[in-house]
Write a structure and sequence with these properties.
Elements lengths: L1 H71 L5 E2 L1 H10 L4 H13 L3 H12 L9 H28 L2 H8 L2 H12 L6 H18 L10 H26 L4 H18 L1 H9 L4 E2 L6 H24 L2 H22 L6 H18 L2 H17 L1
Antiparallel strand pairs: 1-2
């Protein structure tokens, strides 16, 4: 009996051991690839974040500098910030046609394929069917925020240097984070708070740069830049809340819809401003070069903003805009005779620190490193 029990016990123990080995082998074959897949996905997300952030920064910098040039080159014959915003926003009409052209080129000219991607994109306005009411209500809200952000910012460029306007409006990072905690239910993250603190500190330091305050009425410009930041932050968070994780096709259709509504509705206030003399356009003196450059780069920037918010997070886009601060400062130094100062160096360094804290996954690295130390101490 003892032998039998002993033999039986040994048999069970052997079976359990074999089972454990099978579990370990299963973990090696299943969990390890998943671990590598997670690492690969993390690396891809980091690379995508860097690419989008840099693209946003350069597109925004170019658009701002071209807009600044167009507005100040000859104010007696051309001064039309709202009309410029209306004109550049109309370029978004191209987004969905370009997207469908990409689908046709990459997937082939097939009615079934085209219908499939079109149906998927259409769902940005409702899953069941397209409704003009849903289109108007959803698009009108974002068009209002869009125009508010762009018009107030364009007006700010008239009164203050581009680098100052950029730095102040980039304070929307803090607003985005706060709004995201309430509306997106984001978790409290120490790195985000630290990044926001660095960003705000950098904005304040650069805003104190006296060499950039050569224009009159700079207080008005600062207020307009702050208003632009409020509109921008609200737009980003509400886009993530209402539109959610939109596909590229859905983002493209939404932007085209925004452009259509802008073309049809905002031409009314633009015409009123021209008729009343609040804005001036002398066709013989229109700076078409800067206007075209600003419009095309604005199109690129706006597309990256919408796609980046839907794919990643509003803060990633905000950091890309923060990176535009030193880029605009460099442009002001090179092309607008503004001297570099210690304020610019300190502020730029703080903003770069903010950039790295948001993009690089320091929290995951520290958690992993801390867990390894805990396991070693227990062993």
């Amino acid at each position: 009996m003892v032998k039998s029990i002993s033999g039986g016990f040994n048999t069970v123990q052997s079976e359990d051991y074999d089972t454990d080995e099978a579990v370990v082998e299963s973990q090696v074959t299943e969990e390890t690839p998943l671990k590598f897949q997670n690492k690969s996905a993390l690396i891809r997300k980091m690379i995508l974040s860097f690419v989008i952030i840099l693209s946003v920064a350069f597109a925004w910098t170019g658009a701002i500098q071209f807009s600044k040039t167009a507005l100040v080159i000859d104010t007696k014959h051309f001064y039309a910030p709202f009309c410029m915003s209306w004109f550049s926003t109309n370029f978004m009409l191209l987004c969905y046609p370009v997207y469908m052209l990409y689908i046709i080129i990459s997937k082939g000219l097939n009615n079934e394929t085209v219908s499939k991607y079109h149906e998927e994109a259409r769902q940005v306005y409702g899953e069941k069917f397209f409704s003009y009411k849903n289109y108007f209500l959803k698009t009108a809200l974002f068009l209002f925020l869009w125009v508010g952000a762009n018009y107030s910012y364009t007006q700010a460029l008239v009164h203050i240097a581009a680098s100052v306007a950029t730095s102040i409006s980039s304070a929307n990072t803090a607003m985005v984070c706060i709004l995201a905690w309430f509306f997106l239910k984001d978790k409290f993250n120490l790195y985000q708070v630290t990044s926001i603190g660095c960003a705000i500190a950098g904005v304040i330091v650069i805003s104190q740069d006296k060499s950039a305050m050569k224009q009159d009425n700079h207080t008005v410009g600062i207020i307009l830049a702050i208003v632009s930041a409020c509109f921008s932050a609200t737009y980003k968070v509400l886009f993530k809340r209402i539109i959610g994780n939109a596909t590229l096709g859905q983002v493209s259709m939404f932007m085209t819809g925004l452009g259509v509504m802008n073309l049809c509705i905002n031409i009314i206030p633009a015409s009123i401003l021209l008729y009343t003399g609040q804005e001036i356009i002398d066709t013989d003196y229109v700076p078409w070069g800067p206007i075209a450059g600003s419009s095309l780069l604005n199109l690129t920037f706006n597309f990256l903003v919408n796609f980046g918010i839907a794919l990643l997070h509003p803060l990633v886009i905000s950091i890309g805009m923060l990176l535009g601060i030193p880029l605009n400062a460099v442009a002001d130094i090179l092309f607008r005779n503004i001297q570099i100062t210690n304020d610019f160096i300190i502020g730029g360094s703080l903003i770069f620190l903010s950039f790295t804290l948001i993009v690089l996954p320091f929290d995951l690295f520290i958690k992993k490193h801390f867990k390894c130390k805990v396991f070693r101490s227990k062993a």
